[in-house]
Amino acid sequence: MSSISELGEDEFNSFFESSPPLKNKEEIVHKLNSFIELNSSSRGRRIVCVTSGGTTVPLEQRCVRYIDNFSSGNRGAASTENFVKAGYAVVFLYRSGTCQPYCRSLPDDPFLECFQFPDNTNIQVNTSHAEAVKMAVMDQQAAVAEARLLKLPFTTIYEYLQMLRLIATALKDVGPCSMFYLAAAVSDFYVPWNSMTEHKIESGSGPLDIRLAQVPKMLSILRTTWAPKAFCISFKLETDSKILIEKAAKALRKYKVHAVVANELSTRKEEVVVVSSSGNVVVRRDSDKPESIVEDNLIRLIVDRHSTYIKESHS
Ligand code: 9Z3
């Protein structure tokens, strides 16, 4: 039997107690409960929480400076599209300003690059972007109209962890039909709110010393307490390919997630390795098809594994 402190529950309690509270908590809970009610109770759909983008660590309470974790949000957005296609309802927990589902083919500044006013009144889409705009608008509107997509933005590590806990709590009754697909790049270190300066750090007094505390291990508490029955996929990102698989296998054993998707920064769009107790599977983009992305094959495999998990949970 694990003790409370081994599970990190006390670290989490003090992390949450000292976090600035979410500004729109009631609204988020209301949106989540309605979304889950519509999908799970009435339609019996599987629900996946896809996390995407990097969390920030503020250095000042009135934040001017922050530490960021790299993630464009492409993986999360592409995976969300594939989960919707596979029949799932998706809670997309994403970093504000990162890549959005159905928008991956649009230019960086769609408003300025996709549209024109030929006669100064009517708006028109440039022909070069017409198909991409049409698909983005139609697919996104269809996903929302069919209650298959709920988008919830975060910025800081404080917001991310509080929102993830709300989602896990709301999904508890969905049990094995729920999934967590944790592609967000989450800070390992942070400045505790209580020890953070309120105002902008002065720059005139030489080098800056900051002591960062370790963020409590979210994966342990998610698996043991927040959502023990959910199917759980975590990600491992490394820049040194020599240690990647070993680190992913270690995370699999430590957190007892159902699979760890291992990816190396420079090749992450070409291939990933799904590490699980049934062995390691290399998943690649179909390089002979220009439109193909690694998430097409990855989500197919994950959905398959989830189906087996649901069957085994019911038997
Ligand atoms: C990932 O490894 C994602 O696949 C990427 C996707 C962030 C590389 P992009 O958003 O890239 O498409 O540009 N996410 C998890 C990264 C992470 O922080 N993992 C932690 C770790 O490696 C575990 S939760 O220790």
From TrEMBL:
Record GO biological process: coenzyme A biosynthetic process
Location of the DNA/pantothenate metabolism flavoprotein C-terminal domain: 47-93, 168-282
Metabolic or biological pathway, per its Swiss-Prot or TrEMBL entry: Cofactor biosynthesis; coenzyme A biosynthesis; CoA from (R)-pantothenate: step 2/5
Keyword S-adenosyl-L-methionine on entry: no
Keyword Hydrolase: no
MF terms in GO: phosphopantothenate--cysteine ligase activity
Record's keyword terms, sorted: Coenzyme A biosynthesis
Record-linked InterPro entries: CoaB-like_sf (IPR035929), DNA/pantothenate-metab_flavo_C (IPR007085)
Family per similarity comment: Belongs to the PPC synthetase family.
Name of this chain's protein: DNA/pantothenate metabolism flavoprotein C-terminal domain-containing protein
Organism annotation: Eruca vesicaria subsp. sativa (Garden rocket)
